[in-house]
Structures are given as structure tokens and as C-alpha cells.
Design brief:
This protein has two domains: 51 residues, Orthogonal Bundle (Arc Repressor Mutant, subunit A), CATH 1.10.10; 159 residues, Tetracycline Repressor, domain 2 (Orthogonal Bundle), CATH 1.10.357.10. Helix 2 crosses helix 3, helix 4 packs antiparallel against helix 5 and helix 5 packs across helix 11. The longest helix has 38 residues. It is mainly alpha-helical and 219 residues long. It is 80% helix and 0% strand.
């Protein structure tokens, strides 16, 4: 058990060292020797855990996507107001986006993806798949008649896009500070209201459209 824990700790140390080096020097300019030195382990130990720099990068993107999956894993509760539930999901998302470690991970991943269209495409698809928690919540809320969402995965992208416009891209591309308490409330309140306004209107309109359609059929 101790040896397994030590092995896991070394793996985390190597990942942290790789992230520091990738962030400071860039993926292509960072050597495995440098990563081993920063992690304070032998080069052989690095290769025992990761066969290449590409494998290290893959571990970084996997950690990013797993974090996205964790914060979006939210079970729909029909006894609780929809806007409160969606705000809770948004709060979890904001907490993740504001974490310095996540920002560093995202910068490294984005910088490398700019050099590799195939990698960017595969990573994008992975992140969409990891948003399945919110997509499932949207599908459940739609089935309950609270909203009307035809494509839950697309709608999940849309909701996250509202939040990331103010709490991700400005920090990644513009060097802006993470949102403070007042800014967080504004982002969450406006994003939830904007999103639900559109999809609740669809939910209200849907029964009327169906009735009109059936009426025309009878004629």
C-alpha cells in the first residue's frame, strides 16, 4: 500500500513539474531531463510513468477533462427550483475555472493545441463528452417540462460558453484577474437568467404549437 501511494505521489510530482516547465518554456522547448530535475526524480522514473512528452501532455488534458466531468455531474431534482440547480452547476464551474492550477493546465493545453489541429479536434471532442453531466441534467429538466431542450449537448456548450466568456477567456487571453464575489454573482445571475429565458419560453410555446398543429390536422 505504501509503495503504491509513493508511486502515485511520484506521478503527481512529475505531472506538476511538467506543468511548471511547459508553462514557463513551452511544450516543444521542455525536455524530459528538465522535467526530471524539477520533479527531483531520475529520468528513468519519469519514463517509467510516462513513455514520452506526448504521454505527459495526454495526462494533462485528461486531468482537465476529468475536472470538467466532476463539476458538471449534477443530478436533477424535480423538487428544487430549476434556476437554483443551474446556478449551483454554474458555481461549481466558476470554482474550477478560478483555480490557479486549472488556469495553468488550460494555458499549456491550448498553447500546444494551436500547433496540432488533430490534437485540438480530439481534445475538443473529449471535453464535449465530459460535459455529459450537464447534458443529462438538461435532458431531465426538459423531460420534466421545466425547459425545452432538443439537443442537450449543444445546450450544455451554450451554457458553459456564457460563463467562460467572462470567467475563462479574459483570464487566459487577456491576463485578467479571476472574478471577485460581486463579479461571480453577476456572471451567474445573468447567465442563468439568459439561458432559462430562452429555453423556458420554448417549453411554454411547445404545448400551444402542438395544439395548433393537431387542430389543423383535424380540419
Amino acid at each position: 500500500m505504501k509503495s503504491r501511494t509513493l508511486t502515485q505521489q511520484k506521478r503527481q510530482d512529475i505531472l506538476k513539474a511538467a506543468l511548471l516547465e511547459f508553462d514557463a518554456r513551452g511544450f516543444r522547448e521542455t525536455s524530459m531531463d528538465r522535467i526530471a530535475q524539477t520533479a527531483q526524480v531520475s529520468k528513468r522514473t519519469v519514463y517509467n510513468h510516462f513513455t514520452s512528452k506526448d504521454a505527459l501532455f495526454g495526462a494533462i488534458t485528461a486531468e482537465l477533462s476529468e475536472r470538467v466531468q466532476r463539476v458538471t455531474d449534477y443530478r436533477y431534482d424535480r423538487t428544487r427550483p430549476t434556476d437554483q440547480q443551474l446556478r449551483s452547476i454554474g458555481e461549481q464551474m466558476l470554482d474550477m475555472l478560478a483555480a490557479p492550477s486549472f488556469v495553468s493546465l488550460a494555458k499549456v493545453a491550448l498553447a500546444e493545441m494551436l500547433h496540432s489541429p488533430d490534437l485540438a479536434k480530439n481534445t475538443y471532442q473529449l471535453f464535449r463528452e465530459r460535459q455529459s453531466g450537464l447534458a443529462a441534467w438538461l435532458a431531465a429538466a426538459s423531460a420534466d417540462g421545466q425547459i425545452a431542450v432538443a439537443d442537450p449537448v449543444w445546450a450544455a456548450d451554450q451554457f458553459f460558453g456564457l460563463i467562460k466568456s467572462f470567467a475563462f477567456w479574459p483570464q487566459i487571453l487577456g491576463g485578467q484577474p479571476v472574478p471577485d464575489s460581486a463579479a461571480r454573482d453577476r456572471i451567474l445571475d445573468s447567465s442563468v437568467a439568459f439561458f432559462l429565458c430562452a429555453y423556458r419560453e420554448r417549453a411554454v410555446d411547445a404545448p400551444h404549437k402542438k395544439k395548433r398543429k393537431n387542430k389543423h390536422k383535424r380540419k
